[in-house]
Amino acid sequence: PLAFKAILLDLDKLISASRVQPLSVAAETVLMHLVDNVPMPVPGGPAVRFSLSPNLPALHVSCAPPNALRSTDYSLDVLTNRLKPLQLLKLVTVLLLEWQVV
C-alpha cells in the first residue's frame, strides 16, 4: 500500500510539473507504461525498481516471502480505539480463521 501511495504521489508531482513545463509524453502514456512494462514483484524475490520520470527518485517495490505474514502500512490506532476488547478479540479470531492459522 505504501508503494502504491508513493506511485500516486509521484504521478501527481509529474502531472503538476506538466502545468509549468509540458511533458515529453502524455501522463496516460506514463501510466500505461507502468501497467504494461513494470513487472509485479515476486513474493520473496528481489525488489522491482522503477521511476516514472528522470526527475523523480526511483521507487522500490517488493513482496514478503510466501511463508511470511503480509505487512500492513496502516495504523491500527483507530481500530484499537474504537473497538471494545471483546470485539477486537473476535476480529483477530476471524482473521486467523480466514488465514486458516487456527
Description:
It is a single chain. The chain is mainly alpha-helical and 102 residues long. It is 49% helix and 6% strand. It has helices spanning 2-20, 27-37, 77-82, 85-98, and strands spanning 48-50, 59-61. A two-stranded antiparallel ribbon has the order 1-2.
Could you tell me the strand content as a percent range? 5-15%
- The chain-level mean pLDDT equals 77
Helix content: 40-55%
- In spatial order, strands of the major sheet run 1-2
Which regions are unreliable across 5 or more consecutive residues at pLDDT < 50? none
Outline the biggest β-sheet: 2 strands, antiparallel
Enumerate how many helices there are, as a single number.
4
What's the order of the H and E elements? HHEEHH
Shape: elongated
Number of strands: 2
**How large is the radius of gyration?**
19 Å
Q: What class would the helix/strand composition place it in?
A: mainly alpha
End-to-end Cα distance, whole Å, is: 26 Å
Question: Could you outline the blueprint of secondary structure elements for this entry?
Answer:
Layout: H1 2-20, H2 27-37, E1 48-50, E2 59-61, H3 77-82, H4 85-98
Antiparallel strand pairs: 1-2
Q: Key terms for this structure?
A:
49% helix; 102 residues; 6% strand
Quick gist of this model?
49% of the residues lie in helices and 6% in strands. With 102 residues, it is mostly helical. A two-stranded antiparallel ribbon has the order 1-2.
